[in-house]
Amino acid sequence: MNYLDSLEALRTQFPSYKSGVTLHNYSIKKVTKASIVMRITLLSLVILTVYGFYTFDYKDIRIIDAITQALTTFKTMFTQPRFNHFNFGQGVYQVAVTLGLTFLTTLIGAFIALFLGLFAAQNLSSTVVSNAIKSFVAVIRAIDTVLWVLIFAVAAGLGSVAAVIGMTFHTIGYLIKAYSESFEELDPGVIEALRGSGANWWQIVFQAVIPSSATSLLSWTFMRFEINYAVAVAMGAAAGAGGIGFELFMAGNHYYDLREVGLITYFILSVAIVLELVSIRLKLRLNTH
Amino acid sequence: MNLLEVTNLSKQYGHDLLALQNISFSVQNGEFVAVIGPSGAGKSTLLRCINRMIDPTDGEVVFDGVQMSKLKKNELRMQRRKIGMIFQHYNLVSRLTVIENVLHGRLGYKSTFAGIVSHYGKDEKKQAFEIIEMLGLTEQVYKRCDQLSGGQKQRVGIARALIQNPRMMLCDEPIASLDPSASKVIMDYLRNISTKLGITCLVNLHQVDVALNYADRIIGVNKGKIVYDGPPNLTPEEVYMIYGSAAGDLIFDVGGQHAS
CB–CB of A211 and B95 under 8 A? Predict the structure, then answer.
């Protein structure tokens, strides 16, 4: 008996058995109302995009020329990087300043977020406190880091102080959410076991909760460290916080020195790669310890 | 004197779910009591009401001469130290080593700060190593708990409970996730703890045959009520009574075989 026969036999035997596939229609996707709506939406977006480009006001820029020029600029930037206004040593120093800003904001943020994260975790705290912290933190995260720096700049003036406070603020918001969710993944049985033996809250936190979620905490902290590095570069330019970002701003906006812009980009990129490698190494070590 | 005295204990969840209804029994020092009954009968709730991991709705638990319901937060901690708990899923901190997990049993005796920084006294460490040796885990002392087998994990769980120097052990389905040979090892250890160390054991079990083999006394629970309380020689009719007729012949076979 072949497959179709056996399927038919099954159907006669169990009339209530209904298969989603009829025997004569071998279409893999089922056509539903939702899929039709999806197709219409995508098609209209394509039409709108083409129409948009067609009706743009290009002034007297010719698109082919513009693209060629942009490519030439990129070529100058990235194939002929050169020091002009500072030397290698100063470059390293400026990167160190940026890294200092990154490190400081991540460290302060992580420390504060660790404690607030404990109170924001539903399995370690009361529902009221947890919800209060979580909703407050959601508001902090809704506003971008750069905006927080500018908001604090009103009080502290543009510069490194505003950058540190603003970046720390957003870091705390981000890490509280990440940490508290890591804590919530903990097996409730472990907490029950320690509570049942007479251990108190702080002992349970340090003996069970934090050791269990250490890998996750570390990987979130590194994630934020990388984000903060990128933000710190931007802050150097936007908020005058100094560091390599400020040099980038000067080279680009002040001197219009494409070669130096390229060089600084390579500087920033190489540090980012090193950071990534370090974080992978650390996570591996913590996992196999 | 009775070590544990439970009177008219009731636990209600929500408006109409009665997990326990008017449970009364007492346990003597050193007794090995098995609590059997179908899933959802209230066995786990009963166990957790004794050390107030779950607060009972009504009734009284007197353990070691102390009324549990009257205790304040810190006094409750002190009282819980005298009750060791063992779980089906072991509930160890899997990223920590065996010795670290065993020493967790001492946290109730320590100040908050000493507990946070894992500062244990010399005699505590000595006792930990002795218990570990007694349970045959010496080779695993510095292994992380996620590298252990189920039976080994449960032995770590027993060691963590023993180092509390408990008067009583509450065991919630200690062998439900273990294979038969590991189950036998664990049950033998629990039996020894009760006989040799004089620690009272209250064990929730799913396996009727195991309960009949090991326990001094059986408490049968069904739908939140005690339906049997007596020696471990149940007749098939009594097993039916505990598990309900719907449970069918399977339990009858198992129970009957060993009860005879």
Answer: yes
Residues A102 and A187 in one domain: yes
B228 in the same domain as B251: yes
B87/A193 Cβ within 8 A:
yes
List CB contacts (< 8 A) between A203 and chain B. Answer: 107, 110, 112, 115-116
Sheet of strand B58-63, all strands in order from the earlier edge strand to the far edge: B17-28, B2-13, B58-63, B66-67
Contact B153, B145 (CB under 8 A): yes
**A157 close to B (CB below 8 A):** no
Same domain, A128 and A241: yes
Q: Give the domain extent around A26.
A: 3-55
Are A187 and B115 a contacting pair at CB < 8 A? Answer: no
Cα separation, A185 vs A157, whole angstroms = 41
The CATH number of residue A256's host domain is: 1.10.3720.10
Q: Do A198 and B164 touch (CB under 8 A)?
A: yes
Q: Is residue B103 part of a domain?
A: yes
Residues A224 and A266 in one domain: yes
Mutation pick from A186, A203, A216 vs chain B, by most beta carbons of B within 10 Å, is A203
- Selected for mutation to probe chain B from A207, A210, A215, A286 (highest B CB count within 10 Å) is A207
Report if residue B61 sits inside a domain.
yes
Q: Write out the residue range of the structural domain in which residue B132 sits.
A: 87-165
Number of domains in chain A: 2
Q: Walk along chain A (289 residues) and give the pLDDT tens digit of each residue.
A: 567 677 677 667 766 555 555 555 677 777 788 889 999 999 999 999 999 988 887 777 788 888 999 999 999 888 988 888 888 888 899 999 999 999 999 999 999 999 999 999 999 999 999 999 999 999 999 999 989 998 998 888 888 889 999 999 999 999 999 999 999 999 999 999 999 999 999 999 999 999 999 989 999 999 999 999 999 999 888 888 888 888 888 888 888 888 999 999 998 999 999 998 998 888 888 776 5
Alpha helices in chain A (DSSP H): 3-13, 33-55, 63-79, 88-120, 127-142, 145-156, 160-184, 188-196, 201-204, 210-238, 244-249, 258-288
